[in-house]
Amino acid sequence: MGRIICIGNNKGGVGKTTTAVNLAAAFAIAEKRTLLIDSDPQGHSTIGMGINKEKIKRSLYNGLRGEASIDELIVNGDIDFLKIIPSRLELIRAEAELISMPGKETVLRDLINTHKDNYDYILIDCPPSLNLLTVNALAASDSLLIPLQCEFFAREGLGQFLKIFNVFKRLFNPDICIEGILLTMIDKNDEVSEKIAEETRNRFNGMVFNVSIPRDKHLHDSARFGKPLLLRDIASAGARSYFDLAKEIMFRDLESMKDLN
Description:
This protein is an alpha/beta fold. It has a single domain, classed as 3-Layer(aba) Sandwich (Rossmann fold). It is about 45% helix and about 15% strand. It has helices spanning about 15-30, 45-50, 60-65, 70-75, 95-100, 105-115, 130-140, 150-170, 190-205, 215-225, 235-260; strands at about 5, 35-40, 75, 80-85, 120-125, 145-150, 175-185. Strands 3-4-2-5-1-6-7 form a seven-stranded mixed sheet, with helices on both faces. α1 (about 15-30) crosses α11 (about 235-260) and α6 runs parallel beside α7. The chain is globular and about 50 Å long. The mean pLDDT is about 90.
């Protein structure tokens, strides 16, 4: 059975979509059956995977409204093991249209649960806000991966975000756990960036991934070209870091399976 990991943070600009796109590509290159769901009305993961939003017939919006099955939503990625469910601006209407529905928090879970066994990893890229789309993503997921930019305000907001997450966990999805806090945009030449990384590891001991993501202009540029960096410059520091992140997650999962046996 596949694992559903939602990638979220209520602060924008922390590397959330960059992580979703490149981690999905890393899993797929490792020949893990991977589905990336773009749950952000801005559609940045859709763009980052090179999908023309104007040419797709259906998006996640149609799935949430019950107008299309998950098979009708899926678009093939540039890697054999990678599939994408795209989104576009119409998704912004979903919150208003779902608000009066019974079970409005679990519409996404109901949509993807029938296909969970078809994938090793399902990644959900959340919008940078705690709205109904984010609630649906959290309700559907086994774990939450939190990208955290190594700067003061992002780090200060993390504690509050974790408190909100714990309230949500109690109300809607008691089985969800924290996959990990991913330190992003680390600049080894910036003393403040390094200090924040160190303080975060000390404060949230055991929750922070061993792997961190360096500040790499190639990661930023790759979005403009509509390809994960792993498909453009596999030797770059940013690409290697996302390979290492995928390895860390897969190793954890392997160890968990051993413990169960």
